Amino acid sequence: MAARRAPPGGTAPDSSSGTPDCQTRINSLKYILSKKQKAPFSARGHWSTWPAFGSEQTILGNHKPCCAPEERRSSNKQALLTVPKPRYLEELESYLRKELRSLDLTKNNSQELKLQPYREIFEFFIDNFKTYKPLLSAIKNEYEVTLAHQKKAIRALEPLKAMVTTVSDECTQQILALQEKEKDEIHMLKQEKQRLLKFIDDMKEEKSSLQTQVEHLQTSVAEEYARYLNEHGARKLLLAKLNDMHNEQLEMTRRQAQDVKGEDAVKLTLALKVARQDLTKAQVKLNAMMADYGDVVPRRDFESLEKKYSDVLQEMKALQEGFDQLRKEYETLLEIHRETAQERDNFCAQLQRVQQNCTPRPNWAKCSEVIPGGAERWDCLAEGKTSEELMDVLLEEIGTGALREIIVFPGWGKGDKVPVYLRHEGEVKNKKLTKKDVVNTLKDVWKEKIALEQQTGERCSLPEFFLSYLQKKYGDAAAMEWSYTLYENMRLCRSNHVLSSFYDVLTGKVDEEHYRGQNQLISNLQKELAARDSSNSGSLTSQQFSMAVREAFPLKRKESIQELVDASRYRLDGTEDLINYISLFKEDEEGNAAPFIAKLRSQYVREKQEYLRQLKNKLGDLTEVKADDLKAAFCSIDPDIDGQTLDTYVGLASQAGREELDQEAVPVGTVLERLLTGDVRRVGPSPVEGSTAGFEGE
Fold first, then answer.
1. Which of 33, 42, 455, 662 has the most other CB atoms within 10 Å of its CB?
2. 3-state SS of 497-566?
3. Phi then psi for 526, rounded to 5 degrees?
4. What is the model's pLDDT at position 584?
């Protein structure tokens, strides 16, 4: 390090250090500095407060009250630049720059070398500021102690750093070695797997060959057994014949001997007596054998009869199972017949009542004369609608026309029975919205509500959200005007699905899950159709469309599938086979969907009504029901239903949780009405396919 110059005013004051190295370095520096020339820092002159006094004097001398702030600021800056620095400050800065230039910053301890000039400058301040010398010395000592402590800690951590580096290298090498070892082991295991698979194939082939040989040997053994059995019978017959021939030969020999020699009469008498006794014994033994084994059959006949008996028994069991199955089917058909007969009687009674009360079909074409838009608009509104639907359309047109004439609505008051979105006293201005504006507003309400629920993870009430949405978008003053106008439009326009579904959920006629369930079915069908469209052309053939509908709705009947296919082809001629499925989900500006979506929604309602009709039939003559009864009925008509869905249905039926339904019974009619408002549908296939009569008709 280059030689240091003496500090201004003399040598630096003594200061304590945290380590002997620091103290030694400071002492050596003091010794070197004592030999240096003390000029130009030896003279202690006047200590000024630059640049404070200079700027103050300059501002006072150049003060112009009428000048602009920019001119005043530039003149102040120029005045500051004209005031010179104190000579002692310039000498200290010059000394610091010279010392820093003389350092070699390429060494490892360059930071310590760079710190030393700053330390000397600080010591010069301590020497010259006598008043603050104790405080500045204490500050300097604390910094020195802290630096020494940090250096000591760094030196203590250097071996640990080297050890961590070494351990990291060793671990890396071990991991690489293990990977190499496992690679070889995996390769060996793969080879072993291939060998074992080949060995299994060989064993399977050998097993098949041995099985064939066993079957062939069994056939050969059966043939040999039959041949040996026949030979055994033939051998017995042959032995019997040989014995007879041998006896005849002995008799002939004896007769010849009697003829030649003659026999004594006494001897012959004794022989005759003994022969008769032997004959008696043989006869007794023969009778005993016949008595004991008279009913015994040959083994060959027994085995043949036993085999026939086994075959007949198996056939009898199969026939018994078929008979039981037919009996169950007969009982099921009998029950279906009884239900069908009851439905037939109900329909006959309804038909008679309708025939008694029916009136001639009106001429709906006359409505085109009073409907805005004339015959063309009426034909568009009346296309494909029944008389009841046409009546709803006509009432809707009359109601909306009258609604446009209303200027203000009377307020419903602020009672507890009044919905929160209609609580207002006094008159409310009619906004006179078009159906398009009403549809867009209600769609935006649904969109904002779903987004809020996804963000918070909690369900919120539609009436309260409806009011808060209007207040947030239009302000508290105009919120009631929008609320009354939207409510009256929804109440009158029942043929529009967007308005009618929002009105039903808002007034509590149906549960919100009913609306969400229909939208989920439509969304699932869209995804399935898009998955079938591999070319992304937006069109499918009739067969592909039908398969996609079956895949999306596996529980629908063939008739329902065919209805959807027919509804998708309402704008196609008979020869065209491609169906543009994207256009089936489009809506017009007033929210009216295509006939395909209308048919899908009507099937959803019809299937739910049929499901609840089966539930009612299963409950039988019960007038009140508890949770266990309702659960058993659901499991009987829908065996594949899961526990979570079952608890949801029971909670919907009780309107307050399953505990209340467990404590007290609820009328069956109330339960069915509550279930009809929610998203209740079949989970699995029906065990018994009943009729398609709606629950609503009952």
1. 33
2. HHHHHHHHHHHCCCCHHHHHHHHHHHHHHHHHHHHHCCCCCCEEEHHHHHHHHHHHCCCCCHHHHHHHHH
3. -60, -45
4. 83
> What's the rounded Cα separation, in Å, for the pair 165 and 343?
88
What tens digit of pLDDT does each residue of 601-620 get? Answer: 888 888 888 988 988 888 88
| Other CB atoms within 10 A of residue 58 CB | 20
**Is 473 within the bounds of a domain?**
no
Q: Does the residue 169 lie in any domain?
A: yes
Q: For residue 494, how many C-alpha atoms fall within 13 Å in the half-sphere facing its CB?
A: 14
d(CA 689, CA 681): 15
pLDDT at residue 572, rounded to an integer: 67
Does residue 258 surpass a pLDDT of 70? no
- Percent of residues in the chain assigned helix, strand, coil, to nearest 5: 70, 5, 25
Q: What is the largest CA-CA distance in the chain?
A: 196
Q: What is the mean pLDDT of residues 112-125?
A: 84
Determine the residue type at 458.
Answer: E
The dihedral region occupied by 508, where left means phi > 0, alpha psi between -120 and 50, and beta the remainder, is left
CB atoms within 10 A of CB 153: 9
Q: Is the pTM of this model over 0.70?
A: no
Q: Does 187 map to a domain? A: yes
Identify the domain containing residue 206 by its residue range. 146-256
Residue 670 lies in a domain: no
Q: In the chain, how many domains are there?
A: 1
pLDDT tens, 36-89? 333 334 334 444 444 444 443 333 334 333 444 444 454 454 444 555 677 777
3-state secondary structure 102-160: CCCCCCCCHHHHHHHHHHHHHHHHHHHCCCCHHHHHHHHHHHHHHHHHHHHHHHHHHHH
CB 120 within 8 A of CB 134: no
What value does the mean pLDDT take over residues 434-447?
89
520: pLDDT strictly greater than 80 = yes
Predicted confidence at residue 63, as pLDDT, reads 39
